Amino acid sequence: MEIVSRPCSSDKDEDCFILDFDPFEPINDINKLSVSSNDNDEDDDDLIVISEKGQVGCRDYPHSRHLCIKYPFDKTPHESHCEMCYCYVCDSTAPCKLWNEADDDQQAHCHASEHIGDWKSKRNLKKLINLD
């Protein structure tokens, strides 16, 4: 299957393209999918999603704050969170008790990520404490 984009005949919408396939048909082999363009416009690097099907794990299901798609961890304030975010350390709905305020010996939990510092050990310690 090949996606070949051709400009529409409409003068009003220059970003409209006719697809040479049925977008609602399931793609059985993603490796057969290729993208090509008839025009040689090098400035056209944008990708626009016009439809979604199904749910997205880091948006529609509970997820750790650092994995949130709605509020990307590296591009938004860590204090921001969606309704599905939870605290990586406490395993509780965000914001937790220590979300914005830190104890004397640790950072606020909104900054927690499995890839930063020793948050993973703090998470494991919290789990052990909660078992008692």
What can you tell me about this protein's structure?
- The strands form two sheets. A three-stranded mixed β-sheet has the order 2-1-3, with no helix packed on it.
- The chain is 13% helix and 12% strand.
- 13% of the residues are buried.
- The longest helix is centred in the C-terminal third of the chain and has 13 residues, at 119-131.
- By secondary structure, it is of the alpha/beta class.
- It has helices at residues 57-60, 119-131; strands at residues 2-7, 17-18, 34-37, 63-64, 85-86.
- The chain contains two helices and five strands.
- The protein has a domain at 57-131.
- The termini are far apart.
- The chain is elongated and about 60 Å long.
Mind telling me the C-alpha Rg? Answer: 22 Å
How far apart the termini lie comes to 57 Å
Principal-axes shape call: elongated
Write the element-wise H/E pattern from the N-terminal end onward.
Answer: EEEHEEH
Helix content estimate:
10-25%
Residue stretches low in confidence (pLDDT < 50, at least 5 long) are none
Largest sheet: 3 strands, mixed
Strand content: 5-15%
Major sheet: arrangement of strands: 2-1-3
Q: Count of DSSP helices?
A: 2
| Global mean pLDDT | 75
Which structural class do the helices and strands define?
Answer: alpha/beta
Number of strands: 5
InterPro entries: RPM1_Interactor (IPR053234)
